[in-house]
Amino acid sequence: MDATQAVAIRVTVNGERYERSVEPRLLLSDFLRQELGLSGTHVGCEHGVCGACTVLLDGQPVRACLVFAVQADGSSIGTVEGLERDDGLHPLQAAFKEAHGLQCGFCTPGILMTMVAFLDEVPDPTELEVREALSGNLCRCTGYQKIVEAVEAAAAGLGGKP
Amino acid sequence: MSSRYFGARIRRNEDEALLTGRATFVDDVQLPGTLHAAFVRSDLAHGLLRGVDAAAALERPGVMGVFTAADLGEYWQPGPLLVPPAPIEGLTFHARTQVPLAREKVRHVGEPIAVVVAESRYVAEDAVEDVIVDLEPLEAVADVRAALAEGAPVIHEDLGSNLAAHAVQTKGDYDAARATADLVLGRDFTYDRGVSAAMENRGVLAQWDERSAQLTVWDTTQAPIPIRNGLASMLGLSESQVRVVAPFIGGGFGPKIMMFYPDEVLLPWISMRLDRPVKWIEDRFENFFSTTQERGQLHEAEIALSSDGRILGVKDVFVHDTGAYDPYGLTLPINTQCTLLGPYDVPNYYSEFRVAFTNRPIVTPIRGAGRQQGVFIMERLLDLGARELGLDRAEIRRRNFLSPDAFPHDHEILFQDFAPLVYDSGDYEPALDKAIELIGYEPEGPVQSEPGGASPAEDGGEGTDGEDGEGSSRRKRLRGTGIVSYIEGTGIGPYEGARVRVEASGKVCLVTGVGTQGQGHFTSFAQIVADQLGVGVTDVRVVTGDTREFHWGTGTFASRGAVVAGNACHAAAVAVREKILRKASEILEVAEEDLMLTEGVVRVQGVPDLSIGLGELALRSNPLRGAVEPGTEPGLEATSYFGPRRGATASGVHAMVVSVDPETAMVEIERYVVVHDCGTVINPLIVEGQIHGGVAHGIGNAFYEELDCDSEGQLHNASFMDYLLPTATDVPPIRTAHIETPSPLNPLGIKGVGEAGAIPVAALFAQAVEDALKEWAPGLEVRDIPLSPNRLFALIEEARAGGGEEGA
Ligand code: FES
Ligand code: FES
Fold this sequence. Notes:
The structure holds two protein chains of two kinds.
Chain A: E1 7-13, E2 16-22, H1 28-35, E3 54-57, E4 60-63, E5 76-78, H2 91-99, H3 108-121, H4 127-134, H5 145-155
Parallel strand pairs in A: 1-5
Antiparallel strand pairs in A: 1-2, 3-4, 3-5
Chain B: H1 15-19, E1 35-41, E2 47-53, H2 55-59, E3 63-68, H3 69-72, E4 92-93, E5 105-106, E6 112-118, H4 121-130, E7 132-137, H5 144-148, E8 163-171, H6 174-179, E9 183-191, E10 194-195, E11 203-209, E12 214-219, H7 224-235, E13 242-245, H8 262-274, E14 278-281, H9 284-290, E15 293-294, E16 297-305, E17 311-323, H10 331-339, E18 349-357, H11 371-389, H12 393-400, E19 409-414, E20 420-423, H13 428-439, E21 462-463, E22 477-490, E23 496-502, E24 508-512, H14 521-533, E25 540-544, H15 561-588, E26 595-598, E27 601-604, E28 607-613, H16 614-620, E29 636-642, E30 648-661, E31 666-677, H17 684-704, E32 734-738, H18 761-772, E33 784-785, H19 789-800
Parallel strand pairs in B: 1-14, 9-33, 12-13, 17-18, 24-25, 31-32
Antiparallel strand pairs in B: 1-6, 2-5, 2-7, 3-6, 4-8, 8-18, 9-16, 10-15, 11-12, 11-14, 16-17, 19-20, 21-22, 22-30, 23-24, 23-29, 26-27, 27-28, 30-31
Helix pairs in contact in B: 10-11, 11-18, 14-15, 17-18
Bound molecules: FE2/S2 (inorganic) cluster (2 copies).
């Protein structure tokens, strides 16, 4: 297959359906950011370490910089833009604001997506479990402490307080 | 005026945009028709550039141009010297600043040689591979000591050697003090390089609009205004034709205020030539070469002590690695030189440094900016001196602290801002006491349990590793405590400005020239203004980092945003408050003294139904008919500037408890305490966050982050896979406490805090680890940072074999 020969794909992102034709080598992160204009998904390393590009692919957190857009054909994708609810911030987002779990905010979308999936699986985590789940996402600004506090608060159902 | 917001834990105004993915970072700006740039970079650390053949690249479909130094013509020129050398007597200094594209030779791996512009980033990167570069290798010198050795390959031939600078600063007479000392202790120390590793790489988007003759540049810079000024002058444009926008920035930490990076010079020029927007976004691999780095220094230091542990004098001779160029002048070594003195009374000081060019990426400040090294040297000398004299580590510090009545204290040497190094205020013992209390430090050694919960179970310094040991295997863990002090010169001039305007909606717009990289300025500045104008903190819209909005300013560096710009915001708000009251007094026909300003409304004391809202006042201050009185201005607006005479001195004490597995040399931080004095605090939540982040950065520098560079100047770990940043499991919970000695140098009493967390961590690590291992590996001394597990393992082996004495 010619790497520059466009391929048609269909994806559902945050509940909206898109059809595009893309080069097979186009990264999912670039596809979301450039083709769909969903620039909330950030790119910090493009080699799968920092976690800034984390999105949910059929419910599972994946690093969008390690997936080609064509591999996502037929999938449903969740990005940070889809977290907000009709009545405002997702409880995890609200908890981040409440606990000062972000500074520059560059790592934040990837961390939110990682933690949304984590809390689905482990609704009542210990601090150590939160830290371990978080250890695949790098943040240079916060020292992680207030992120951990935010996740714990969200888990305890306190983060969403209006 | 009631102070409702200043000092309160206010949630941040900027968070919603960031949490929902709406915040715009440079790479999020997408303009139709944008071209993408990629750089052809040198594979060699040192070489002669014989030629560049771009023919194949130019034939690739989608490539719009390939530019080399030769194509730039007159536009090719070395960057500016950002900080001229301080007026130190007898100083030698040679400025050799970076070039936009290498012309005759390359001086470090990754130095740009050509730039390819294409329809997509993918094609541009393909085309980079098509460019054939003819480089003739020269012998490289990557090590700072080797660089100054006789016969070393010379990086800037015209200088005849790699010496970039030489300076001596002294106070008193060290040699005379030494002669009277009971103990003279000398050691060699090294502090190695790391990268800043902001999560967002650098990037530039330049858009020239031929019709309006306007250039707009989005840049991940910490200093948009100086970038605008420089670009205008280089491109022959008026400053009014150039707009530089630093939108949301994904972390700065220093390197985003280097001027000019080649990309910052080249992209605007290319956009003007091709009449298309051009974007370049650095990738993480490039970041390890093309963004500046810091901290490489070698020290030979000596301390002269009396038998009761008083410092009689300190001598420090060091070499500072500036990399291939030295655009930042002497900022870093002077910071090291000054910060070494710490919170102590040092009557005699001899400090001499040499700066060397090496074939490595350029060195400019990173969070801490030379201060880490100074603190490391002084704290290590005190630790080793205390050990030698049989004194307690906290006690030796206490005995040497400047007393609270010693301020202002003149150290008789020059600081990086060229002003004499004078501490404005401080009180160091309470911070030490507080840290001792919080960490549970006891003289003569570490405690084994949380303070208060005295459990002697682990006496003897051995615990068990229940969490991550295989099965039920119990591993020996040795505990140690560390406690160190430091000061930080913050908030230096020259100045920043702010403009405050009440709009017809009754909301407030606050504009300042500084850029912001996550420090919470959208909130802390709003707090300052909201208190003055009696409005809600969310009613103040803060605009930063856009040169079209504010013309004057310098940038975000040296922990100065809150101090310098914060005080400018305050001054502007005070001026607007006066205008509000004057106008309201005219309209309501009531004396100003009888007016109150709350909840966006001017009210008359004791007359509940006589009032006027800020919005209406703003409208009436900007009439459509009639005349504005002579001597007054329309609108409720004021612009103010603030420039401190000199920097405010923040200080602190950090303490921690570590446990070390002596078999594997793995170190775990069990507890961490920061007691910090940053003057008055605008927002404790934000200050804590800054400190946490700084400590994490410091932990990385101390134990995890190491650039593996060989003698040829080749880096072997240019990825986050191999260059280890601390993760959530490496950084412990950090407990903070504040001591407040307001700075007399600014009306708000603020001292900076941005770098404080990072500064003393290596010194602390060294002390705590030595303490943990004092029986297992007697005589072990930590003299080199970063102290990786590998290096610590070797030190343990060496000490147990009885080899820990060398260097004594
Ligand atoms: S950008 Fe995908 S993991 Fe870093
Ligand atoms: S908040 Fe800046 S990298 Fe995490």
